[in-house]
Each structure stands twice: as C-alpha cells, then as structure tokens.
Amino acid sequence: MVPVALFWFRRDLRLHDNAGLCAALRSGLPIVPVFIFDPKILSSLDADDRRVSFIYSALEALQEQLVAAGTTLQVLHDEPLKAFATLCGRYHVAAVYTNEDYEPYARQRDAAVAAELGRQGIAFLSFQDQVLQAPGAVQKEGGGYYQVYTPFYRRWQALLTDACLKPHPSEQLAGAFHREPVGTWPSLAQLGFRKNPVHAVSPCLPAETLLRSYHDTRNLPAIAGTTRLGVHLRFGTVSIRALARQALDTSETFLKELAWREFFMQLLAQEPRLVSESFRKEYDAIDWRQDEEAFGRWCAGTTGYPLVDAGMRELQATGFMHNRVRMVTASFLVKHLLIDWRRGEAHFARLLLDFDLSSNNGNWQWVAGCGCDAAPYFRVFNPQLQAARFDPDGAYVRQWVPEWGTSAYPNPIVDHKKAVARCVAVYKKALAREQLALFP
C-alpha cells in the first residue's frame, strides 16, 4: 500500500485556516481525513444532546467539501486506540496529524494514542490551532502562570504578533488528499442519538457593525448584540485567528472575551483538579444546601425571579443562554439558594450547545467566589436590579416567561435580602472554620 498520513479532526471541523491540516497537506503524503466518535465521551450524554447533532451536521458539511476534493471523511465509532488499530489495518499509515486539545481527558487520550503509534513507528504530530496562545505560553516575568485575568490579558495581548495571527492556507492544498470513493458512516441512531434541532448562527465572521457596537449591546439579552459564535469556537468551525484579526480592527471588548476563553483554558491545563474542586480550596468547606425542590425550580425556570426564569427557559428550549443572564442565573443558584456551584455547572454542561469545560468551570467558580480570579463572596447579583438595567422594558423576560405579571406566575422562592444575608453568613462561617483549621 502507498504510505499515507491521517488527519484527525476534533475541535477543528473546517478545511480553511486549519493549522494541523495545513501541515499535513504540506507533508508530501496523501492525507486521509478522520473523525472518531469516542464512546467514553458519548456515553455521558443524553440521547437528544444538541451537540452531537451539531457535530454530525458539521461533519456532513465538511464531507461535502472533501467529496468535492476527491476524497471522503473516515468516520469511526470506537475507542481512539481501537479506531487507530482499524485505520492502520486499512492503510499504510506513516504519520498522524492533529490539532492540540488541552482538556484533561484529551491530554490523557492523546498521550496514549501517541505512545501506541510510536511503538509502531508512526509519528504523532499535533499543532496549535484552537487558541492564539497555548496554555503555558503566557507566563509571568518570574515564571509561572497568571491567576488574575487583567495582567494575563496585558501579557496575552502583547504576544499577539503577526506570526500567531497569520492564517494557515489549508483550503488551498486540497489536491494533497488521498483519493478514494465516498464511504459509509454510522448514523446518529447507530451512535445512540436522536436528531435535535440546533439553534446556531452560521459559522462565519460577525458583521463589522455588530462588533463596533459590541461594547454597548453585549449585555442586552433582548437584542442580537452578541456573536453567538461560542459553539463554533468550541468545535472549530470558525478560525480563532480570523476572529482575533477582526476584533483587533473593531472591538477590544470582543478581543477581551477571546482572552477570557484562553485564560480559563490555561488555568484548567495547569490545574486539572478544577474539574471537581474549587481553585480556592477553603471554599470547599461551605455547607451547601441539599434542597431538591429549589434546585428543580431553578432548572425549570419557576423561581419567581423573572430574569432568572427567562434564562433557564431559554437554555432548556434552545441550548443557549445570553452571557449576562448566565451570570445572574448562576449567582442565584449559588448565592440565593446556597446550592453547590458544581450542580449548576453540571446542568449547564448537559444543556449548553456551546459548552466548553474550561469556560463553564471558570465562570461558575468566578460566580461562586471560589476561583482564582473571582468576584468576592459577598458580591451577590440582585436579579431585579439586573433586569431593570439590562432588560428595562421586559422584552426578554416576556419572550420566555409569558405568564409573568399574571396570577399563574409563582411568588419568589426566596426573599432577596434574607437570601443574601444567609449566603454571607454561611460563607463567613466556612471560611472562618477553614482559617481556624490552618492556624489553630
């Protein structure tokens, strides 16, 4: 058999400006494109998970382009090590190219795959693609990673050279794909999933007018003032480099949002324990309430706080929630209801189409006050004041809570002032107890 290289698509489901794919296509070997549905990941998802439908649709769009280039995407449903054993039996594989993934499981998976391929004399080559600065690249002057966003951002921005923003013209190298007829894929049903309508914008750069007004409109949930590109960044159907170049020309506020994403990525890469632990370990001593009724009402959007309920219902219906409202709903669960932030994080992880482990974890810890760059524990969002400021005419609330203002709408589940006082007291007690344990 003629030697080939495999390109393993993961969080980079596009042919254009794809760093690893570009390197593969320049290798001189015919490139076989591959995607693997990993049962370890799929087994934790609901049968109607929107993300699987999104990925499947993105792969179908990718396949159209690959067929036009004379090749086909090899789609396997298997554990990665077994999938590569299958592929190595099917082709004479000389190398595997891919783009880096920084989540804890992904790093373990890639290390195992690289080791097994290495035993067979097959090179495993990975490239930076989903970020502008890889975890570990933005260091303090004396070494070590940043634990506060603002100095991280200043250093991150200073490192945005032309080299890291330069596109990789992978779309111009389509002639280097391995030529073969269209193959068959496992269906969604065979993967164990049902098709779920996905509410997502197309994977294209945002309008310049949107970005120029982004600073003023991004906090208003009733209007289309955000890019809605979170899911496309998550699965790489847009180029982070193209977005950053556009942001540099139009909106530093949007550029800062891209930096927040990378701040949380580097944090999780440095501290994988954060998947289940607070960055500030003393906050794990908080006596969280085990109130299933309250948690259920928060999930269902029946707390009696209109902005909170609107956000939770939007999430349930669409897989999306406006960023400002995410902060308010998360703060309400943790501070008003005193329910462990990890339960809220898991609920968002189950429903968010744009779920990203590091951002979801980082933002929940920020709200709870237990993260490295967190709001102080005594800062509690007032949902009523937030609604008055960011949804003053109630347009967003009315869209998702049509019974608001009628007798059908429930009374508030908790009193705001009493809930805040309880929150502060419980936090203080836990932190004082931890301090006493450290310095008896």
Layout: helices, strands, pairs:
Layout: E1 3-9, H1 19-25, E2 31-37, H2 39-42, H3 50-68, E3 74-77, H4 80-90, E4 92-99, H5 104-119, E5 123-127, H6 149-158, H7 162-165, H8 188-191, H9 208-212, H10 214-217, H11 230-235, H12 240-250, H13 252-270, H14 292-300, H15 306-318, H16 323-336, H17 341-351, H18 357-368, H19 383-390, H20 395-400, H21 416-438
Parallel strand pairs: 1-2, 1-4, 2-3, 4-5
Helix pairs in contact: 6-13, 12-13, 13-18, 15-16, 16-18, 17-18
Tag the structure with descriptive keywords:
chromophore, 3 domains, alpha/beta, globular, 49% helix, Crypto/Photolyase_N_sf, Rossmann fold, DNA Cyclobutane Dipyrimidine Photolyase, subunit A, domain 3, Serine Threonine Protein Phosphatase 5, Tetratricopeptide repeat, 440 residues
Structure in words:
The protein has a 5-stranded parallel beta sheet, sandwiched between helices. Helix 1 (19-25) links the parallel strand 1 and strand 2 (31-37). It has helices at residues 19-25, 39-42, 50-68, 80-90, 104-119, 149-158, 162-165, 188-191, 208-212, 214-217, 230-235, 240-250, 252-270, 292-300, 306-318, 323-336, 341-351, 357-368, 383-390, 395-400, 416-438, and strands spanning 3-9, 31-37, 74-77, 92-99, 123-127. The chain has 3 domains: 1-129, Rossmann fold (3-Layer(aba) Sandwich); 131-167 and 204-270, Serine Threonine Protein Phosphatase 5, Tetratricopeptide repeat (Alpha Horseshoe); 276-438, DNA Cyclobutane Dipyrimidine Photolyase, subunit A, domain 3 (Orthogonal Bundle). With 440 residues, it is of the alpha/beta class.
